[in-house]
Amino acid sequence: xxxxxxxxxxxxxxxxxxxxxxxxxxxxxxxxxxxxxxxxxxxxxxxxxxxxxxxxxxxxxxxxxxxxxxxxxxxxxxxxxxxxxxxxxxxxxxxxxxxxxxxxxxxxxxxxxxxxxxxxxxxxxxxxxxxxxxxxxxxxxxxxxxxxxxxxxxxxxxxxxxxxxxxxxxxxxxxxxxxxxxxxxxxxxxxxxxxxxxxxxxxxxxxxxxxxxxxxxxxxxxxxxxxxxxxxxxxxxxxxxxxxxxxxxxxxxxxxxxxxxxxxxxxxxxxxxxxxxxxxxxxxxxxxxxxxxxxxxxxxxxxxxxxxxxxxxxxxxxxxxxxxxxxxxxxxxxxxxxxxxxxxxxxxxxxxxxxxxxxxxxxxxxxxxxxxxxxxxxxxxxxxxxxxxxxxxxxxxxxxxxxxxxxxxxxxxxxxxxxxxxxxxxxxxxxxxxxxxxxxxxxxxxxxxxxxxxxxxxxxxxxxxxxxxxxxxxxxxxxxxxxxxxxxxxxxxxx
Length: 495
Description:
The protein is α/β, with parallel strands linked by helices. It has 18 helices and 7 strands.
């Protein structure tokens, strides 16, 4: 051994150790290496934390594989651990079991095992938003449609329009109580027109409203949507309509027919049948008048157009009644739905409907231009101080003219007079119809309908109302009219 250290295992020792590492590890015991403490002890087989041993083989190849795993790949063995292990897997297991409850019965454990693999995270992220949609579709489907095909009739039934009305229903009954049966015919849309009618007894309100809404003059009056007076009722001087009747067309036009204003037949019924009056009314005629004022004030608040029907020209008491109803009309609610707000003090914020004076059963002389001009002048003088919009009916009228329309007597009522007018000294004229002085009744009704439907549709309140919102708004107005302090004070002054 030389003193330069060649006898010590220096470079040769390391080279020999490399050869042993590359070769078989069983060449000689590791303790006979003279280079000091052997490094082979660092690679002795050790138990892992999970109880397994390192597999036999070259350790220099196993070490870089383990160290080269990214954190995401190292987390996979922890997910593949037993289900009853770490509490980190409790949340995914509960989610997958909830998903299996809504799926097909059979093998929930297999679906949970498949979903717990590597793509489970991606599946949960993609299926979690669609899970409520799957449950909602199965809720309204039958067992035959559980395969995923949605019945088109189920979706179309929700889009169908409301049922077409064939006859009128009650909005306010004869006891002056509000009815909710009209709600099922209304929709959530704002393009609507509300038309009401008032008038004295026997003027033909129900017949005109039926002709404007759904019927023609050639039809039998017994099939009208608003039942007119029968011959028996006319002979005994009774009234047909009570309260307020409701009808809506497919064109979304709401028609409100009312009982006669200041009706003598209703007063006679109260007196002869000993009907009990409400405690706030002492006399029957006061109760009848207050009923009429409540209905008129209600129509002035919830209608776009109010038709005033009269069969002769003219009754001054009717105009006094209109001005009284206008005075007692409830104020338009403010945007905050506060009826006691300051909106009632401002005339510009108040809503007033369009008024149309309809002269029913007009004679031939009424269509004379001179007489027609005089009728317009009289109505203009009587309504000069009113806030109701009684001018500017349609395009055929000037804005300075009164909203007045004349309807002649129906052809079957005046047929004998027309045939007599055609007979005379000239036999040729007897073959021609008599001179009417106005168009036919059906033509005049068609013209009236077109002008009524062309009326401007102003907002009834400070917000745009749908049909269903209008119904709730009208119910609130009717309740406010019945509890109005102004109407109560006026009824006290009548006594």
